[in-house]
Design goal:
The complex is a heterodimer.
Chain A (H helix, E strand, L loop, with lengths): L5 H13 L4 H5 L4 H14 L8 H10 L17 H13 L8 H9 L18 H13 L8 H10 L17 H13 L8 H9 L20 H11 L8 H10 L8 E2 L6 E2 H13 L16 H9 L2
Antiparallel strand pairs in A: 1-2
Chain B lengths: L10 H26 L5 H13 L4 H17 L4 H21 L4 H11 L7 H13 L4 H13 L4 H14 L4 H16 L8 H18 L7 H12 L6 E5 L5 E5 L20 E12 L6 E4 L11 E2 L8 E8 L11 E8 L6 E2 L9 E10 L21 E3 L8 H7 L6 H4 L4 H13 L6 H16 L9 H14 L4 H16 L3 H5 L2 E4 L11 E4 L19 E3 L19 E3 L22 E3 L41 H7 L6 E3 L8 H10 L5 E2 L2 E2 L2
Parallel strand pairs in B: 2-9, 12-13, 13-14, 14-15, 15-16, 16-17
Antiparallel strand pairs in B: 1-3, 3-6, 3-8, 4-7, 5-6, 7-9, 10-11, 11-12, 17-18
The chains are: A mainly alpha, B alpha/beta.
GO molecular function (chain B): Rab geranylgeranyltransferase activity
Enzyme class (chain B): transferase
EC number (chain B): 2.5.1.60
Chain lengths: 313, 690
Amino acid sequence: MGELAADKHVKYILAVEKRKDNFESAVLEHLRMNGAYWGLTTLDLLGKLDAVDSNEIIEWILKCQHESGGFAGNVGHDPHILYTLSAIQVLALFDKLNVLDVDKVSTYIAGLQNEDGSFSGDIWGEVDTRFSYIAICGLSILKCLDKINVERAVNYIISCRNVDGGFGCTPGGESHAGQIFCCVAALAITGALHYVDKDLLGWWLCERQVKSGGLNGRPEKLPDVCYSWWVLSSLTMIDRVHWISKEKLIKFILNCQDTENGGISDRPDDAVDIFHTYFGVAGLSLLEYPGVKAVDPAYALPVDVVDRIFFSK
Amino acid sequence: MHGRPRKPLKPVDEAAVAAKAEKLRALQSEFLSNHQNKIYSKEAVELSAKLLEINPELYTAWNYRKLAVQQNLAQCESDPESVNSILNEELKVVENALRQNFKSYGAWHHRKWVLEKGHSSMDKELGLLDKFQAMDARNFHAWNYRRFVAALMKRSDEDELEHTQNMIDKNLSNYSAWHNRSVLLSNLMKKAAPGFTNKDEVLTREYELVREALFTDEDDQSGWFYHLWLLDQTVRSEFPLLVSSWPVEGSDISLPAADYLDGCASMNVFHYSSRNFPLVLYFNQYVRGVNSSTVSVSCGFNLNADLIWRPLSSNDSQSAKVWATHLAIPDAELHSSEAYQVEVKVGFSLGIVSTTGVAYSHPSQISFQLHLQKAPLESGQDSRFGRIQWKDDCFAVYEPGSVEPDLVNLLDNLTIKNEVESTASTWQARIIDDETNIFRDLLDCKIGKLTVARLLTSYNSLRPLDKPVHCKEVLELYSELMKLDPSHYRYYKDNHSLVLLQQVTSSKESLLSRCFHYRDSTLSTNGGPLCLRLNNLAISQLGSFEKLLWVQMLDLSNNELQSIEGLEALQLLSQLCLSNNKFRSFTALESLRCLKSLKVLDISQNEIGSHSIDTTRYLFHSPLSHSVGSCDWNINYLSSKTYWEAFFVLKDMGLTQLDVAGNAITSQSFNVFLEKLLPTLKWLDGVEVN
């Protein structure tokens, strides 16, 4: 409690990157691409991206690319839109998007759009608004948003809007902070935030803050550091972040740190992991915590990385 | 990881764990090899089942199994017993996986994939769902799967609604059940299913049902959002209607001839260019289709066909609550000193429609008089003001009778009378009344106070022509909530501000008490523009714009505003003070781009440049949100991208006076940038510009 143990978290992330002999890394081997994004973005937000060998990482990323253009979670696994975005995001961090065959990747993503505007995660057809966000975010970073039918994509997202102002994974699905982040960010990137009732959703989101100061993901659930990202970024994009107590949330996040060994956990005194370390630090960034770079709430990348993509000549 | 306690590993444990990891790695490696080589032997497929039982998140294994199933189905040549056996095996693997992790997306999707083949029995699925929902009634995967199964089985919405009732009866604290109920009920009401056509009956039933949820545990949120939805369904106006307009019905306006208007000169209460006279229509909801076919403007001279109506909103969707156009009176007409009777007929032709698809079917007519005045100003009097200073001693209290009586008449007629509202059914008011009385029993807790505040506010919204009642009580309730629930202080504060503004704008007397003449020392007579001063009110959010369309000079200084969303409706605005507020970025000021008459802007003493996070970044037109055409965005104009937000807000504004001091962004280079961007600028931070 008290302060952000930035150095410890950096050490923790670097150690996890190298450790391959524990059970956890075996079980999570299939989503290493996500892990790379979480770990490396955290390093960048803490100003320590140069602590890793970018060439080694980029080499590995390209080995995960499938002939279809999509990326897998790790070498030998199947391609999926989830890992394709993480690959794009990591390359953006390193300012190495030019190693991509942009046409190939964007065609893979665009090919996953369905008639009704929704997106499948891969050729096996699971539909979820998470994938709508991923497609829109990924293609936007690659400057290829016009490869999809944006109007239909937006219409599908709106069809997943609920009476409480939130969004679910498919039409009729319950509002959940993670889905809300995906839908709000997708609408933000496509200039369609006017479809969000900011006051209604803002109230639903701000009531995620419970007495301990942490945020839960939906009513009557336990608080969890990862919601410091999903809820907070959503509130930030609709300009309602002032409806929660920033001080109390900062305290909650700091309390979830393992200040001895580094890393952040979902709740105080639980086991730490890269996922929650990233969301804790990103949450602190949105709360303007000193020493943490500003993060873009829609692209989930540092603001300077996003600005570099969109404002360079 | 979720819910795993943090503890250091003992050395003995570490070795065991390493061995376990190596074993898993070996299995995964073997599996991946089978997958690469398309090996679907019995052993290979069993290996994948074993892996999925350990790790249901291994998505490639689910893909592999689908490929194996496809191959095996092809080989068994549609023999129903074999098909069933193959598919049942998959269902078993899914069940085992779900037992490990019943939140596994891969497992649930695999089950759907199997069922979609159409060979499996559906009866078992509902039973399985009941089992899962008994274990965790909030598992959204299970609820989604239920929706999937119900569709496949063609179960009726009524039956599914009953299921939500059963879940709620078991446990009121089940947000998922309330949510699903809202989906089914919306559907049943939309298709006007039997038993769901009488809104009064349906809503009354639902209010009774959800009441218990709110009263049983005052901190349990499960019913809160459902109740709020019921409230919205109760008071939402069915019909798109015109709420207010500029000019106001029956007003009498003096229009100075073009030559005599520049800068801030004014001899009259209302001043604007005869080349650019705004007409504003304010509706009660977002509408489309306002154009010269659906709105006819007749004057002594014909100009209707050329009128272009624009939606005043921050988006490009061609829908808005506020629409505006500008009359350009031809020079040929400026010589006569006649009065022109102008008639604006709204919606006499079909075409205006709400975004929810309801046609505008209550046409209105607004009539007003225009007097052209070409008398020049008295000689010896400077036709322009010096710099506007927003100091108390520059403002003199408005004296009734000292200016044209039009202001008073105008303020009497701000709200348009709509027949359909005055004959609105009473069931809405009755429900609100009943609910208010019931919730007064809950006033000692947060949800009780909040609900009563909302109910009282809703009551006022049902009667737009009457003066709002209970404002004082509502303001008190929000003040109490600010103390009771300090984490959400700003939520209550913003709502408090909205009610405060409703109160201030609710009567002619209240508005007049806030109207002041601006008095410049260079002017001897009482001719300054009329300023509405809403400063020092501690307001954090703006509202009631429909009551303020007539405002030309507005003082909002010394408040707690961070957004001016909605201000774009005030098309007459030419002088605006936003100093000493909480504006954090130029992106928060985008509404100003719609204010073509704005000449004087004070945004000094704010927080622009102090924040690393821009909360209006995506509510603003920029390449980040793909809402700027490529021709609008000329990055080369800027020497650096440092001031891109300021560039985009200010670039087409004809400001003559700008104050930005007291913001972190200000610097010598910023001032140079501003002077270059705004060639019409005469004063910057009080200093004359060359």
